């Protein structure tokens, strides 16, 4: 595992290749803008992606961030709805403008695509292959070789999980994804997030418990603080009843 320090600059695999500072981070001609679900679902994925086997400073998650994947065609990129990479620095100096595979040295471990009518065929690998630039499916499977590829259709709450086996994606029959090397899993959870009650994708731990989101962690911290305060008040009252001044202790 690479010992990156938070905020450190990225290593350059080849000084002749462009870096994220040389490559465009957005394309104003790209059709379609994310809807609210495409904004909130990646937030929940990021907030609950806490693998216990990797230091948090070496875990990168991102949504709608360009991935440049081909040094032979350095302007080719894909933009997943959400992805995670381990053993790379979580933060780099100035923040990432994009994710440049030949500069970072590692491919994403998992990619999640939220299906929409404009992209569903490409996301599912149904478009014509062998074209240039290649489709998302070809890039994730053949070029980046992403081990886990997840598709979620929020219209019918359908989850498809693909694992890379012998260089090809195979759809798994299980309704949840378990990543053994990270001791973390992904499943569908029905609950309220961003004031919206529905089915969401979120990560769970080795005990099958849903990993808390940021609001849930804050609420839990407040609850523990209240309980500690109540315990202290009860103890002080018992000491007073016993004739002991708690302030003298």
Automatic annotation (TrEMBL):
Pfam families: Uma2 (PF05685). CDD domains: DUF820-like. It comes from the Bacteria. InterPro entries: Restrct_endonuc-II-like, Uma2. This is Putative restriction endonuclease domain-containing protein. Residues 31-174 form the Putative restriction endonuclease domain.
């Amino acid at each position: 595992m690479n010992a990156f320090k938070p905020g450190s600059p990225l290593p350059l695999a080849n000084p002749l290749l462009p870096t994220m500072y040389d490559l465009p981070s957005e394309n104003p001609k790209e059709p379609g803008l994310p809807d609210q679900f495409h904004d909130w679902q990646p937030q929940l994925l990021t907030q609950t992606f806490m693998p216990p086997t990797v230091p948090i400073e070496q875990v990168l998650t991102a949504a709608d961030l360009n991935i440049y994947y081909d040094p032979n065609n350095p302007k080719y990129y894909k933009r997943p709805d959400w992805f995670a990479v381990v053993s790379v620095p979580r933060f780099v100096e100035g923040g990432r403008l994009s994710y440049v595979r030949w500069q970072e040295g590692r491919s994403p471990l998992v990619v999640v695509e939220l299906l929409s009518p404009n992209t569903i065929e490409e996301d599912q690998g149904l478009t014509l292959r062998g074209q240039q630039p290649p489709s998302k499916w070809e890039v994730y499977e053949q070029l980046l070789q992403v081990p886990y590829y997840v598709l979620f259709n929020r219209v019918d709450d359908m989850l498809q999980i693909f694992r890379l086996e012998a260089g090809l994606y195979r759809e798994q029959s299980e309704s949840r994804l378990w990543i053994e090397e990270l001791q973390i899993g992904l499943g569908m959870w029905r609950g309220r997030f961003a004031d919206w009650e529905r089915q969401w994708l979120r990560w769970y731990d080795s005990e099958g418990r849903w990993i808390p989101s940021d609001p849930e962690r804050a609420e839990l911290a407040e609850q523990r603080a209240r309980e500690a305060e109540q315990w202290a008040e009860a103890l002080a009252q018992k000491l007073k009843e016993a004739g002991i001044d708690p302030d003298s202790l």
